[in-house]
Amino acid sequence: MTFANPGYLVLLILLIPAILFYIWKQKRAYATLQIPSVSPFAKVPKSWKEYLRHVNFALLLSAFTLVIIVMARPQSSDSWSQSSTEGIDIVLTMDVSYSMNTEDFKPNRLEAAKEVASNFVSGRSNDNIGMVIFGKESYTLCPMTSDHTVLANMVESISFDLVDGTQTAIGNGLVTGLNRIRHGEAKSKVVILLTDGSNNAGDVAPHDAAAVAQSLGIRVYTIGVGTDKDFEQVVGYDMFGLPIKQMVKPDLDEDLLRSIAGKTGGRYFRATSKDKLTSIFKEIDQMEKTKMSVREFSRREEEFLPYALAAIFLLMLHCLFRQTLLRSIPS
Fold first, then answer.
1. Cα(28)–Cα(259) distance, rounded to whole angstroms?
2. Same domain as 187, residue 102
3. Cys-Cys link to 314, which of 63, 176, 223, 284 (CB 3.0-4.6 A)?
């Protein structure tokens, strides 16, 4: 407990002269009717009011003390605390090319990946996580953050119109993710790269991006999405905004994804269904964690209200007793 205005507590010194004056006044009190002897009254029992005659003064004194405490503004003290928690830096790098609209995952690959990724983010409360999306080009959807509510909302907002989805630039997507994570404070850094295609665009070769990740000590976990069957793929949109579809063969470059993961010390996973994708993210969730320092702030809160209410109650009680049970004549 701290006080915003501790100087007012000096007023508590006034309690001493107030108590001394009350004691002196009680000793000076004497009867105005003089009689030769009080012995006839020696065995008369004392009234209950005799025992309570100091209550009014005690109530007044207590109320005065509480008022001074209110003036001093008691507060719960603010404090900084240094603690260690387990966490890593993670960047989710997600393919949003048109092929992710394939419905072998329900409702489609992208929506299934978004749901699983959002659940993954919610379960990693101690991590700093960022989000990168890519198609023909790549960009950062959300920088590294520990505010997972904001990140989850950003993941939910992912759609096919955010980037040109006609091609897939895996190398560019990976390099963008590496740029987001390389300055992180955690000792353990991980990029999770999710795609359903092969690299056919961009100015950075995926193997070169993997070499950069290896030099930075960043592990890359790659996830290949989709079944092995031919599927109907969206290849564009007409003038009315309706999707243009055609049957295509799976284009997933598993050898490339294995190579990227192997070179960086990560692992390659294949997701052929939404349930499999969920289990993959759960497996990644079991990755080693490293200690990171967290500084927490405790906000200052005003605590004067209980004291103010108690002071008002005691003053009302004092006034009630003074006019009823403990009324003195003359008052």
1. 101
2. yes
3. 63
Longest distance between any two alpha carbons in the chain, whole Å: 125
pLDDT digits (tens, 9 = 90+) for 238-249: 788 787 777 777
Asked if residue 276 and residue 305 are part of one domain, the reply reads no
In angstroms, the Cα distances linking 134 to 173, 201, 292, 324 are 5, 11, 30, 82
What is the DSSP track for 106-167?
SS-HHHHHHHHHHHHHHT-TT-EEEEEEESSSEEEEEEEES-HHHHHHHHHT--TTSS-TTS
Q: Which two tokens stand for residue 113?
A: 């990946």
Domain that holds residue 65: 1-18+46-78+299-331
Q: Which two tokens stand for residue 306?
A: 């209980």
In-domain check, residue 267: yes
Amino acid at 262: G
- Between strands 189-195 and 219-225, the pairing is parallel
Report the relative pairing of strands 301-302 and 74-76 from DSSP bridges.
antiparallel
Number of folded domains that form the chain: 2
The model's pTM: 0.60
